Amino acid sequence: MIALTVALGASIATAMLNVMLDVGDKINEELKAYGSNITVVPSSQAVMLNLYDVEDAETKEEYLKEETLGELLTIFWANNITDFAPVLDTDVTINNENVKLIGTWFDHHFEFVKKGTTYQRDTGIINLRSWWDITDGEWLDEVKLSGENYAMIGRQLADTLGVKAGDPYNCSNACR
User: Fold this and answer.
1) Which candidate, 154, 20, 24, 135, places its Cα nearest to that of 79?
2) In angstroms, rounded to a whole number, what is the distance separating the alpha carbons of residues 163 and 23?
C-alpha cells in the first residue's frame, strides 16, 4: 500500500510539473497568433496626442537606431520576448497612387554584444505575422537575396501596377 501511494504521488507530481512547464509555451504560441503585444518607440513618440487633446502639438520625428534593438534582449523579461522586427514606414506615390512603404526584417539573424556577452536571435516579420496568407510568391529570403533590391507588395497594389510575383518593377520612374 505504501509503494502504491508513493508511486501514485510521484506520477501525479510528474504530471502536474509537466503541465506547469508546458502551459507557458502553449500560451506563448497562442498569443503569437494575434501579433505583437508590445511596441517600442522613442520616448518622444510615446506621447498619446489624441488622449490629451494636443493634436496640433509639434512632435519631432525620431527613430530607434538598429544597433540599440539588442537592448531588448538584456532586460529582465528578455526570455518572454519571442520575436521582434523593426518597422520603418513612409508614404510614397507610385503611378499617382498613395502607398505606404514599410521596411522590416523578414527572417533575420540578429546578434548583439554588450559587456562581452553575445546575444543572438533569429527573428523577423515571418514569425510575427504568421497569419499572413502569401497567395502568389513566397516570403523573401534575406540570406539568399542579401544586397539585392526586392519587395513584397499587397494584392491590391499588385493589381494596380499590373505586376505579379517575380516580375521586375523599376520604381525610379514611377515613385516620388
Assistant:
1) 24
2) 45
The C-alpha cell at 2 is 505504501
End-to-end Cα, the chain, rounded Å: 82
Three-state SS string over 14-27 comes to HHHHHHHHHHHHHH
Q: What DSSP character marks residue 175?
A: B
| Cβ atoms of residues 42 and 64 within 8 Å | yes
Sign for the CA dihedral angle at 27, 133, 142, 173 comes to: negative
Residues 66-114 have pLDDT tens digits of 778 888 888 887 777 778 888 888 888 877 778 888 888 888 888 888 8
pLDDT tens, position by position, 40-63: 777 666 555 555 555 555 555 677
Q: Are 137 and 165 in contact (CB under 8 A)?
A: yes
Q: How far apart are CA 157 and CA 174, in angstroms?
A: 13
Asked if residues 116 and 144 have their Cβ atoms less than 8 Å apart, the reply is no
Spatial separation of the C-alpha atoms in residues 16 and 126, rounded to whole Å: 34
110 forms bridges with which residues in the sheet?
A: 121
Instruction: Tell me the whole-structure pTM to 2 decimals.
Output: 0.62
The Cα diameter of the chain in Å comes to 85
Quick one: which of 105, 109, 139 has its CA closest to 121?
Answer: 109
Rounded-to-integer distance, Cα 145 and Cα 1, Å: 67
